[in-house]
């Protein structure tokens, strides 16, 4: 056991004090009584200081009681601690005030919930979005105030990786939940009604325009075909070019309609298991017959677990194989394979063709994005193939992964995570 220097000092003082009392007492012939009185006085002095300490602790302030000996040291240490605590409390209050001020100004509804889903705090935007009332709704369970079944299921599901889009009083809301501390949640929601409406308008416009264009272009290509058969040598070249372009336009329109259909139609669900062996053999045979021996196309597959739409996945893999054929020089190889790891299943389409520069990869699935417009046109591309693949994979909760090296080749992998 180590004694602090102030305790050692205190013990020396006590010894001196008792010796002093002993000397005085011996002088009057009452040595032991004097020592006893000295000890009693010493205890009373400690009790007095203890009382002052308790009073100060009950109402701490900057003025600590004046004291001597070990008590002076104790009061000094407590005073320092008090000052430090006050400093950090002030800093925390300032941060909290700043946080509240900024969340008050946020256009997003922000709500703090405790582990029982009871509201602890909310900002003014929550009053507008959810009709919460200050004073009244703090302490209430949020599922008693926002009674949307989707919202309640999401909140109780405890899986907040993806945000939730749900309807609330004629509004479309996007909700994010972040858990923090011990079972506390921060909810943030915003109104996306306008954005959804604009998206719908854009989709409707593209879908309507494509449908409107389909008939005149089909009529035109019919007439051009007739013209092709009956025109003289001088006009043959321009008529052939017009025919090629109308065929291209027909293809673009068909793919735009396909995209619009994928965006607007509801998904049939992910509980239908796909016969992947049949599907992959089907697209493989189709690619081999279209390729007519220009490439070495191989297939190495094992059954993998994928749920969803057979037709849609068939379209996606067929688009990837068509691209591989298109962008791989003759005699190159193309491989269709499958694999599985602990997280999900994969379908890979690999080629040793042109490859794609790193800077293009993140944009490949955008509509009409091409690495080389001339080359894509020349090969009969529309710039929509990978956009369709992405849309289909999104609907299946799957992801398109692309690895590529210029002049070495590309691997497109469709990753279907296990749910
Ligand atoms: P496109 O109809 O032009 O092929 P896609 O959306 O299918 O449009 O593909 C977008 C672009 O990605 C293509 O223009 C092409 O440059 C590139 N690409 C796609 N697949 C491959 C591939 N297997 N190898 C090299 N480039 C590819």
Q: What is the H/E order?
A: HHHEEHHHEEEHHHEHEEHHHEE
CATH level 1 class label of the largest domain: Alpha Beta
- Quaternary state reads single chain
Major sheet: arrangement of strands: 2-1-5-4-3
- Give the CATH superfamily of the largest domain: Histidine kinase-like ATPase, C-terminal domain
Report the count of strand segments.
10
| Distance between the amino and carboxyl termini | 60 Å
Low-confidence stretches are none
What's the architecture of the largest domain in CATH terms?
2-Layer Sandwich
Question: Which geometry do the CA atoms define?
Answer: elongated
- Strand content is 15-25%
CATH-defined fold name of the largest domain = Heat Shock Protein 90
> Compute the gyration radius: what is it?
40 Å
Continuous helix count? 13
Catalytic activity: ATP + protein L-histidine = ADP + protein N-phospho-L-histidine
GO biological process, one term: cellular response to phosphate starvation
Transmembrane segments: 12-45
Protein name: histidine kinase
Describe the fold and architecture:
The chain is 56% helix and 16% strand. With 419 residues, the protein is α+β, with helices and mostly antiparallel strands. It has a 5-stranded antiparallel sheet, sandwiched between helices. Strands 6-7-8-10-9 form a 5-stranded mixed sheet, with helices on one face. Helix 7 (193-230) packs antiparallel against helix 8 and helix 8 (233-264) packs parallel to helix 13. The longest helix has 38 residues, at 193-230. The two termini are 60 Å apart. The model has no long low-confidence stretch (mean pLDDT 91). Bound molecules: adenosine-5'-diphosphate. Residues 323-324, 327, 351, 353-354, 356, 364, 370-372, 376, 381-387, 410 line the site of adenosine-5'-diphosphate (ADP).
